[in-house]
Amino acid sequence: MVKLRICITYPLLKQQHTQPGYPHGPGQQPSGHNIEATPASPGYDIAQTLMMQRIDTSADAGALLTAMLGSGCDAHALVRIFSSPQYRHPYAFQQLRNDYRDWFKRDLEKDIKGKTQGDFQDALVALARGPLDHDVSTLDKALQQRPIDEEALMGVLLCRSNADIMAITSQYRHTKGKDLLTTVKDKMDERRFPLYRNVISATRAEDAAAVNPADIDYQITELQRGIEENGLVVTEILTSANNAQLRAMCIAYRQKYHRSLQEAIVAEFLGSEEHALLQMLTSVTGENGKADADALREPLRDPLNNKRAITYRVLRVYWGDRARLSKAQAAYQSSYHRPLVTDLEHSLDGDYGNLMSALIGGDV
Question: Quick one: where's region Disordered (predicted)?
Fold first, then answer.
């Protein structure tokens, strides 16, 4: 069945005049309220290094050099060091990379590229670069493809804090010499661009912003009108809200319209637009690691064609805090009745598979 939507243009919520019961649109706060900004994720704010303790990397730096000297490569040693818990924080691994450079006058990334290959090499390079530069690299590759890889774009940009988005756009400009928003606009058709424009603008409500029942009631009414008449309104509302507000909208929408917001979106949207909106909602309705578990499971259904997605999603969970990984592991076990590590080991092989399972907590 072909899904049709009649689009009627009217101002987006952020442009509307103040009305009784909903004095501010999604993502906006009442004037005079100072909302604490959501901190950047590990590896996205250089100020995090001020809180890092100095790590003794001498043994591991020497072991890395030994592993890549001569004609061969000790892949087991690389997996052991790169997945070591003491280098879990990206800036801790940066210490190792810098010490390797300073002590041996060598570039770790270049040595990795000279001694490894394929998916194993890609994952090691990503770990050496850290999450911020890996995001920039992922975006750049996605935007160079024809057609562009929207799944990769969504993986990097959706459901992120304003601090993360600002770090990503700044680093993209610094390393690529061009503006991310302009680049996306040049590559994207007009229908899909508004979603990315909203996300890249980094104007999402901060996590500390309160859930206002009057706002939620107004927004779900506007969501229903947008679903029926103008999909841009739906995009505007969902990309502007924080997780708690999105969760409240999902609950209130079901209570008022007797179906889930996800069901409404599936009925009226198509393709990447539908996928993006559902991803935003799934990230907040999947409690206790379920969203991460499902995101990891999806590419494992066809691992031969999804190595890049597997690598990205494993690293995102790995670079998060330990609680996030523990929740993802528990949710995976509960949903799929087997350990996540087991599926990684069965679906992936060789040095690459060993690295992915080690990052998730498997034996080295």
Answer: 16-40
